[in-house]
Amino acid sequence: MKKLDHVDKQILQILQEDGRIPYTEIAHQLGVSEGTIRARITRLLQDGVFQFIIHPDPEKLGLHVQAIIGLTTRLGSQIKVAEELSKFSAVRFVGSFSGKHDLIIQACFHSNDELITFVNERLSQIEGIVSADVSLELKQYKDSFSFVQDDDVTLQ
């Protein structure tokens, strides 16, 4: 993979703001040709630097309960447990962490009852989970994928 340069980072910043922006507009903002933008974006996609996704708001989809669940797994079971958790549509994130929990998941549910069912009937059936620490999200202050920054870049 080629190292990202200043133009690549500028392109990523612009796309973070609006993934629907036309390549011609990006080219205009950066003072390069549309062909340059098209080639750069194609390369960045092929290299797996980013992907175009839709990031829906769970609340607007009726998923009013969002939970972060810290899991402790039996030694040697972490990968298998993570693979099982990844199969659930309610689970939007699974990660391995150091510290108190081996795995942390983020999951969205329509109701508290649905969360309780998930914990008591789904998680309890996964071989290798020792304990679960459920935290409900009370208020969300930020939910963003906009973290690419080029300190030398100031976009208008």
UniProtKB/TrEMBL annotation:
Keyword field contains Transcription regulation: yes
Classification via PANTHER family: LEUCINE-RESPONSIVE REGULATORY PROTEIN (PTHR30154), TRANSCRIPTIONAL REGULATOR AZLB (PTHR30154:SF34)
Top-level lineage group: Bacteria
GO cellular component: cytosol
Keywords assigned by UniProt, alphabetized: DNA-binding, Transcription, Transcription regulation
Annotated GO biological process: response to amino acid
GO terms of molecular function: sequence-specific DNA binding
Domain (HTH asnC-type) ranges: 4-64
Name of the molecule in the record: Transcriptional regulator
SUPFAM superfamilies membership: Dimeric alpha+beta barrel, Winged helix' DNA-binding domain
